Structures are given as structure tokens and as C-alpha cells.
Amino acid sequence: MRSVLKSGSVLAAILIAGCTSVGASQPAGTPGKKVCELLHGRPNAGLNRAVQAAVGVAHARLGVTTVTQAGISPSIGPFLNGHCDLIVAAGYEEAPLIFTTAGRNSRQRFLLADEWFDFSSAPDLTRPNVSVLAFEADQASFLAGYVAAAVSPNHVVGEYGSVNIPTVDVALNGFLAGARAWGQDFRKRVRILGWNGSSGSFIGNDFDKRTAFSITTRLIRGGAHVIFGVAGDAVLGSAASAASYPSVYLIGMYVDGYTVAPRYANKWLTSVVFDLTSPVLSATKAATGGGSSGGLYVGTIANGGVRLAPFHRLAHLLPRAVLTKLRTLRTGLAQGWVSTNPADYIPREKEAGGGNG
Fold first, then answer.
1. Angle 235-242/209-221 helices, nearest 10 degrees?
2. Which domains are assigned to the chain?
3. How far apart are CA 131 and CA 280, in angstroms?
């Protein structure tokens, strides 16, 4: 059976808190309807970018006005008291604020994404005014690890994370399981640097490109030819490092790195993508039309909530046998008979975790 994050899940939430407010023009026919984004950190980094893309679709299709506030310590106050039909928040740091505020403002609609949550005791998921978006990142990152091990000339790959929390660790473990699975299927020795299932390399946040550059350089010097960074915008530091090595490639997280940073077009092998479009549209329609909302949405391989980005310019690097196998693996992940637990695959060579270096 596949791993379903029994103690938690990757909830992609958009919390837009902060100091900067940006309003979008409003198409005719929807006066007064507003979606407000509360984003922790930089608005165009990592998951925040995925959130803004989904809200942008809601603006284009439904004609709602969008307002964004972003920062390190954002305030939700300006969005309350009827100023927003839907408040969209992203980031595990903001979950307590969202649930507390939702309890005190029963008529206000909220959407929370990218938050680790204990589903064994989740009374907050029953709040009728809060929609929670969870994403099984391990499914798509499993495919990424499988591809990475196949493409790396010496079958050595590397990975690192932003912060050592369940939302990040589950993606790292999915990649680890996928790389091991490729070695098992093709009877090859595979080495995974940077994460061994319990310890590894972390930069401390989603935006420190300098530390990401340093960690990536260390992984490359250790022999890795494909690098997976679960670190939002910081992965651009990895791209800068990889640019100096002709046979080193990258796998991004949350959004398609190829479209975000086209200057590194020849480095992006693929990315683990979170697609929030469907749940954000549903929550927006409910909030602006008076329909029912609340509850949990889980993005999976089966419903398209998580997926691999296209291989773009590097598709020629994938062996035909691997492309064929990917179709089977997607089916197995969707149906639950492909595991994303690294312990279910026998490593053919000891992985190396390590500190931040």
C-alpha cells in the first residue's frame, strides 16, 4: 500500500499576511466580490506562486477582485469584517491563526493550504467556513525520484529541504522511495545524497538562495547529477550552482521551474507541481454565491492535484523503458498499490544524509 501520511499530510495553504496590498482589476458583472490572499513570506516564491496562479484563474473566470498581503508577520485584520468574501492562506505557520479566527468569525470563509495536520484528531476540519487543501506530495516526488535515478549518468542523486517539518519530509521521502524503486526495478546501484529518511540537509527557510547554492554544490561534488530541492524559491540557488556543471539537472517543487526561471531552461528536468485551481475555484464559487464550503480537499495523482511537470527540453534524457514504466507507476499510485514509503524498497547502496554543511 502507498503511504498516506498517517500522522499528517502536506496541506498547501495560502496565508497572505503582511504589509503590501496589490489589487487586480475587476471584470464587469461581479461588483463587490473579493478574494484576499494572506501569504507568508515572499508572494512569488514557491507555493505562494502556485496559490496566486490559482487565484488568478478565479479572477479570470469568475470576475472576482483579488487583493494580496504578504510578509513575514502578516496581519489578517484588514481582511475581516466583511472586506473579503474568501480569505486564502498558505503556510503551516498560519494554521493556528486561521482556525482561531474562523472560530470567532463564523460568517467569514477561509481556505488554508500547505499545512501539516494531524488527521487523527481534526475537529477544525469540520468547520463549515474553512476549506483545507492537502496534497500528497510523496506521490509526485516518488515519480521524480524514479526519473532522477534513471537520468543521472552515475545514478547518484541529491535532495535537500527548506525546514525539517512533515510537509517537507514527506516529499523528501517520496523522492527517496522513487530513486530506490528505480534501482530495484533495473537492478542498479543508486546513491541518494542529502537525505536518508530521517536526517539530511536543510536551509532553514524557502528563500535562502545562497545556502541552497552551497548545499547543491556540495551534493554535486559528492557525485549527484540530479538535485531535488523542496525549498520554494531557494531552489533558484541550486539552479545557479548547477549552471556551472554541464551534466547536472534540477527538479523543482510546487510550480514548474522551467516556466518560473526559463534562463535555466536546459537544467530543469521536471518539477513536482501542486495544482490548486480546482479547489480554489470551488471555494470561490461557494464564498461568492452562498454555496456550501468547508472540509478537506486532498490533491493526488488520481485527481491531478499533484503531478510532474513536463520534461521540456530534457525529455530526450529519459530512456523509453522509464517513460513506459511511469505510466504504470502513475496508475499504481492512483490505485494505491505502489508504495511511497522508502522502507518498502531495499537500498542497493547506503544513502547519506548529513547536516547543512
1. 50
2. 10-136+276-299 (3.40.50.2300), 137-273+305-344 (3.40.50.2300)
3. 9
